Amino acid sequence: MILEGGTIHTADPALPRVRALPIDDRGRITRGVEAWEGETSAVSTERINLDGRTIIPGFVDAHVHFLSWALDRLRVDVRDAPTGAAALELIAERAAADRAAGTDGTWLIAAGWTEAMLAELNDPAAALDAATGGRPAAVWARDRHALWLGGAALAQLGGDAIRREDAAWATPLPEPTRAERQRAVALGQQEAHRLGLTGIHDFERRGGRRTWQELDEQDRVTLRVASALSAEHLDAIDQLEMIAGFGSEHVRIAAVKGFLDGTVGARTAHMLEPYDDGGLGMDLLPTDDLIEVIRRSAALGLPVALHAIGDAAVRSALDALERTRANWADLAETHGRPPRIEHAQLIHPADLGRFAELGVIASMQPVHAAEDRAAAQAAWGTRCSGAYAWRPLVESGATLAFGTDAPISPLDPIATLAAAVAVPLLPGHEVDVATALTAMTVTPSSIVGLDRRVGRLAPGHFADLVVLDRDPFETPPEELAAIQVVATMVGGRWVHGHPPW
Prior knowledge:
20 helices; 8-stranded parallel β-sheet; 34% helix; 501 residues; Urease, subunit C, domain 1; alpha/beta
């Protein structure tokens, strides 16, 4: 087929814009002067008129917890509740509906609470019991780093009603069945394509990789999924001889994830100086252990992706990567799999230039700047000059990769684009449209070894693309959030919104 009659941005430096995009029967963009310039077709007799719409490479979310996000879509979401009482009302409504349907025999799982909501409740466990009618219940915090349990749940599990970091993640909640996981992810994949996503970097801690492999074996995966492994499983990774890139065209191994600290909302992000309201946060991966993780991962052919939010955690990550550079340099330079720091929400000014100096990717989530604005300013005060510093990083020569961290933030690449360009935490931290789109298309593809397959609309690459109702390069920053996804294609196949539109 040939797509023509609109604006086509290729992200290919050799030919940034083309009049027509020829796609062969293998789903790859093809070469040929006539077809490439949009004159006569040597590829196909099928021509699709874009009617003035715009094509760009498909969006790739560089940081998502897909199974958690997909399951949350089918559960109670309290993130938009204005108060703790309102959150409990939403939970009570679902509990009542489940009782009426006769489906209340299992735990009620919800997500989305904030510290402000919780602070309103004198006895959170009892309040949750009252909302559910005594049904065992667990509610994840919005940042997924804390868990709120009801009294009925505590009767089974013991321990504290509010659990943070490792204590939360180690809580043995009932796991969804195989059928529930597959249904949630399959439905979530459809929604992801509707939003313009053609690929994701999945950081799900448990169950996600299994679900993707199950669906891939059934030929039901249309996203390109780069899946991270947990640093705590390095022994098993070594035993199984897993390497980066192992997998199929749609599901492959990408990196090793390590946690250095927590989050700003919970005051568990690790700080160089105390928070404005006290405390230094949590150091979850001491230096010697971190260095061991980096060295072992590199020896196995796997880059690291290090969760670091506070400025102390970011510095610790950079220090460890500098000390181990000889171990991972070949992996980054020869194989195109550089180390990454995930989130990097607060960077000390002295560390800004070190990302570029070391060749470390800053994997960030622009929507967090808007969502965390109040919490960040309360926690960091004047230090926010180094918070969500996208443009200062770019000006220093660093490479950015953008994602959403869904379900922490909505899985919405258009919102990511708008936030990066128009909604910085501080003036001067925004980036231009070209930089933002590169961080959402080219870079996430290249840093997982897919740069010769996807990320650009260049000859030989798979036709992973999105059709938009307007050109983001010609749209005022304040109007970017209104851009609509018309259609999405993966490997030459329409996965959402096929023509006629």
